[in-house]
Write a structure and sequence with these properties.
This protein is of the alpha/beta class. It has five helices and six strands; from the N terminus they run E-E-E-E-H-H-E-H-H-E-H. The protein folds into two domains: about 55 residues, Double Stranded RNA Binding Domain; about 80 residues, Orthogonal Bundle (Arc Repressor Mutant, subunit A), CATH 1.10.10.10. Helix content is about 30%, strand content about 15%. A four-stranded mixed sheet has the order 3-2-1-4, with no helix packed on it. The chain has a two-stranded parallel sheet with strand order 5-6. Its EC number is 2.1.1.63.
């Protein structure tokens, strides 16, 4: 596994990936950064990820085209796949997301899977809001969630 740190408008990011694709994107303060002793500092392995993130934050990219390889249960994978179908600049509720995966009663489980997303920003869990239109939980903090939604034009002050 290769890793690198990358500066962004929402703070430092820890990126990690291997030959299967991007495995994680953690935000500073969102979760403890734990580097595995078998990880190696990336040379050029994560350059494309950094370039696409920079384009996104500069308003020049609305969709990522990266190989992703998040580790999770089949249910989490299903939720994360559904998250990637939420268009740039749009939001949906946890209930909407549960409906999308044809598990309408699994709203809380969807919320838990959303919170366990290891590749935030790229897998856009920030686009999920409360059913009443309010910002709700985000591992990176509500301030970052609001900034991401404002960047996409989906949230106004």
């Amino acid at each position: 596994m290769h890793y690198r740190y990358h500066d962004s408008p929402i703070g430092p990011l820890l990126l990690a990936g291997d030959e299967h694709g991007l495995r994680l994107l953690h935000m500073d303060g969102a979760q403890p950064w734990q580097l595995n002793e078998n990880w190696h500092a990336a040379d050029a392995e994560l350059d494309e990820v950094c370039q696409q993130l920079d384009e996104y934050f500069a308003g020049k990219r609305q969709q990522f085209s990266l190989r992703l390889a998040p580790l999770g249960t089949p249910f989490q994978q299903q939720v994360w796949n559904a998250l990637q179908q939420i268009p740039f600049g749009r939001t949906c509720s946890y209930s909407d997301l549960a409906q999308r995966i044809e598990r309408p009663r699994a709203v809380r489980a969807v919320g838990t899977a959303n919170g366990a997303n290891p590749i935030a920003v790229v897998i856009p869990c920030h686009r999920v809001i409360g059913s009443n239109g309010t910002l709700t939980g985000y591992a990176g903090g509500l301030e970052r969630k609001q900034l991401l939604l404002q960047l996409e034009g989906a949230w106004l002050l």
